[in-house]
């Protein structure tokens, strides 16, 4: 699997990669245990500070790792590792070390202890910003405190989940409607 | 513009269309005023009841219509009306009637007063389920109480926003990874 060469990316601009709705891999660490989970229920919530919201089921092994460590990394996988993404989503960190099991490379983040996945196109280091909606909705609000994005390609080919084992693969990107935007709306 | 012939769809399965992250048109009505807004910041939050979360900026004309009426419709537009979607996002309901201005057809919903957009592939009638996070995060939690989805095609070609006037058009759908799922995970 390819390990992407990345550069720093403005945290206020990560909507470029998250707003289109890709499946993400969320990595975490707490007291010597690490894990990776597959997630599709997330949204951008603010540019500055860079906030994202996501749903993490209480039964996921990652739930407690993230709730206790108050950190995680959002990693964006590309379509070429879709099979690995599915395998990650269909196993539990209670039983296996997913980095070892799936041949993924943990890379130290700059600001969080949760490991980043080198084989993902982008890594967003996150700190838990608000846990008040966790109990009622399993909704975590994170601030993205540091973003790393591959130098090329400009836009990754991502996978988007429809449920029932079906994925949509991201298609072409277009700027043809850009002329219809008011300057202040860009 | 094509008006889609739709049938009832299980509200617990709307993730098929929302989880991939398309731009949606949110329609609303309150005291004789209607509006449509373009939205990219939303997420699935629960299957049953069918909950979705979304961010609506306080400055949007739709903010007060939805907050006061406690209803809206999530409409999913397809790529063929992308230009109209952008125009809707770059005008305000304070100044124009967007249904009339853009030649869209309002259709009465079964359970909400907010009009559905006939030219969209799917219409999800929503009731405000939780407004407690509106003040702090502009985050609305809706319950989808009724869903209408086009009979064909099975999967729409949707538009996904990256910011800066750039859209990703949804690509092909694949079930090739389905065999990797555990039965209970499908």
Q: Into which percent range does the helicity of residues of chain A fall?
A: 10-25%
The beta-strand count of chain A equals 12
Going by CATH, what is the homologous superfamily of chain A?
A: Electron Transport, Fmn-binding Protein, Chain A
CATH class of chain A: Mainly Beta
Order of helices and strands of chain A: EHEEEEHEHHEEEHEEE
Give the overall average pLDDT of chain A.
Answer: 97
Task: Give the tally of structural domains of chain A.
Answer: 1
What kind of assembly state do the chains in view correspond to? homodimer
Summarize the topology.
The structure is a homodimer.
Chain A: E1 6-9, H1 15-18, E2 24-30, E3 33-39, E4 42-46, E5 51-55, H2 61-69, E6 71-76, H3 82-89, H4 98-101, E7 106-107, E8 116-117, E9 122-130, H5 134-137, E10 139-150, E11 159-161, E12 167-174
Walkthrough of the structure:
The structure is a homodimer of 186-residue chains. Chain A has 186 residues and is α+β, with helices and mostly antiparallel strands. Chain A contains five helices and twelve strands. In chain A, strands 1, 2, 3, 4, 5, 6, 9 and 10 form an eight-stranded antiparallel β-sheet that branches. A two-stranded antiparallel sheet of chain A has the order 7-8. Chain A has a two-stranded antiparallel ribbon with strand order 11-12. In chain A, a hairpin with a 5-residue loop joins strand 11 (159-161) and strand 12 (167-174). The longest helix of chain A is centred in the middle third of the chain and has 9 residues, at 61-69. Chain A is globular, with a radius of gyration of 16 Å. Chain A starts with 5 loop residues before the first strand and ends in a 12-residue tail after the last strand. At the A-B interface, helix 1, strand 4, strand 5, helix 3 and strand 12 of A face helix 1, strand 4, strand 5, helix 3 and strand 12 of B. Strand 12 of chain A pairs antiparallel with strand 12 (167-174) of chain B, so a sheet runs across the interface.
């Amino acid at each position: 699997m390819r390990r992407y060469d990345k550069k720093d990316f403005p945290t206020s601009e990560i909507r470029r990669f998250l707003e289109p709705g890709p499946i993400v891999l969320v990595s975490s660490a707490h007291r010597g245990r690490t894990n990776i989970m597959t997630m599709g229920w997330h949204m951008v919530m603010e540019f500055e500070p860079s906030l994202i919201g996501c749903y993490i089921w209480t039964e996921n092994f990652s739930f407690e790792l993230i709730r206790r460590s108050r950190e995680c990394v959002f990693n964006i996988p590309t379509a070429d590792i879709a099979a690995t993404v599915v395998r990650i989503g269909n196993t539990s960190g209670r039983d296996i070390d997913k980095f070892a099991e799936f041949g993924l490379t943990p890379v130290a983040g700059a600001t969080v202890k949760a490991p980043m996945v080198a084989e993902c196109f982008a890594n967003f280091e996150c700190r838990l910003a608000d846990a008040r909606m966790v109990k009622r909705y399993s909704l975590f609000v994170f601030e993205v405190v540091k973003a790393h994005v591959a130098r090329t390609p400009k836009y990754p080919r991502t996978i988007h989940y429809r449920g029932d084992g079906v994925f949509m693969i991201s298609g072409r990107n277009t700027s043809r409607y850009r002329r219809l935007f008011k300057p202040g709306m860009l």
